[in-house]
Design brief:
Length: 213
């Protein structure tokens, strides 16, 4: 099974269409590349920002936030939408601290709230409802996160989930790993639930884009 599902040329082309980023954002991209840390990258990040801007999102919850690269795109959208909150949730104290520094450097400290702990539990405890929820946690947790997300998302809200194509591993019938099965189960559950209008956008590793009716 191929590692990179989309052609390098397509990925490079889509990333190249993203307008220039700030030095801080570029440093975050370089840091992820050096560490091989899985961030959503420029094209998917810009797409998330675009959706959040188009819908005027002001209350966003992000599950599995890492050191804050995807958070920065959502915070930019909320800032430009007139202010609100982006919730950053990750279980690693060090990554949360890194994200706080980046948000400060980007001028988004007032916009972002930080939760250190299991992200679905943090969402369960959050007040909501949210305009937009972004999910990028460990893939074996995808199916169980869905009822909590559905409850906390407003009607008319949008869910974005990363890695729905999983480098093509979802197409390998031999791959029954918990992560691959988690992605298959989430995909099946949400595309057969009449409360959602859902589809996959094949940017980078595949983004689920779902509208809660
Ligand atoms: C794929 S990385 C995040 C990338 C981030 N969304 C970005 O694009 O910049 C996922 C991060 O969330 C953490 N994580 C995974 N599952 C989690 C969970 N259930 N609760 C909290 N953190 C989780 C991982 O340890 C990792 O740091």
């Amino acid at each position: 099974m191929t590692e990179e599902l989309t052609l390098d040329s397509v990925r490079g082309y889509l990333d190249g269409l993203v307008p220039p980023r700030t030095e801080e954002m570029k440093a975050m991209e370089a840091h992820a590349k050096d560490l091989r840390f899985p961030i959503i990258g420029p094209a998917a990040g810009y797409f998330c920002y675009q959706i959040a801007r188009m819908m005027g999102a002001k209350e966003i919850f992000e599950l599995g936030s890492g050191f804050g690269y995807s958070t920065a795109w959502f915070a930019r959208a909320v800032d430009e939408n007139g202010g609100g909150k982006v919730h950053h949730a990750v279980w690693d104290e060090g990554l949360s601290a890194e994200a706080r520094k980046h948000m400060q450097a980007l001028g988004y400290s007032e916009i972002v709230d930080f939760h250190v702990g299991e992200a679905v539990e943090a969402l369960r405890e959050a007040q909501g409802p949210f305009d937009l929820i972004f999910n990028d946690i460990d893939k074996e947790g995808y199916l169980d996160s869905l009822p909590v997300i559905k409850q906390k998302l407003k009607s008319g809200g949008v869910l974005i989930v990363d890695n729905l194509l999983w480098s093509g591993k979802i197409f390998d019938p031999e791959d029954k790993s918990a992560s691959t099965e988690g992605i298959r189960e989430l995909t099946r559950a949400i595309t057969t639930d009449e409360d959602w209008i859902a589809g996959i956008v094949p940017i980078r590793d595949g983004l689920l884009l779902a509208y809660k009716k």
